[in-house]
């Protein structure tokens, strides 16, 4: 998993409108945290917690064709290459990120994705209570070798989402970034359909904390993925090679 900018020193131009939209969504979520009880930890229950998904903008979906700059934009969001980008400070809100690559099977592995999230959330320091939650026996058992591989969806819920819901909300909203979430997805007959990481996220969207913004990118041509995420990502941004919104 890349830990430095994929732009390799190059500058990204003409995408300020996208950053403004993302910044607005983060500010909107942050504002919602001031509502009474919004920052109180939520004790997990058998059904979807009442505090999950309360925000009016659950996620952002970046859609564009090949060459429209989706991956470059995600990289710039994480590792700003300009003084303006550094001043904007969006990278400081990143809880975790993941870049899917068709040529790298490890980046398409759902269990590897889940394990990576756990490690990054701990390192981020944005949710201080999270690391302590991981010490609970039930969570430790789910993180044992083989458990995540056998049932990554259950591990995602028990080791990522439910602990985050039970933590005190950060003072400002944070985001989870997924680039090329449509990579590795296979669609055909029902028995041949596999959406991998994309399906994992969409299936568990009701368990996302209200203070967590999901940002995903996908190719415009993959209508299955755009349809899957359009229902839960309120803000859908269409990118083109001419650098402006469609």
From TrEMBL:
Q: Start and end of every Nephrocystin 3-like N-terminal domain?
A: 59-204
Q: Where is this region: Disordered?
A: 35-54
Q: Does the keyword Repeat apply?
A: yes
Question: So which domain of life are we looking at?
Answer: Eukaryota
Annotated Pfam families: NPHP3_N (PF24883)
Keyword annotations of the record: Repeat
* Identification of the protein by name: Zgc:172215 protein
State the organism named in the record. Danio rerio (Zebrafish)
Give the taxonomic lineage as stored in the record.
Eukaryota, Metazoa, Chordata, Craniata, Vertebrata
Q: Which gene encodes it?
A: ankrd50
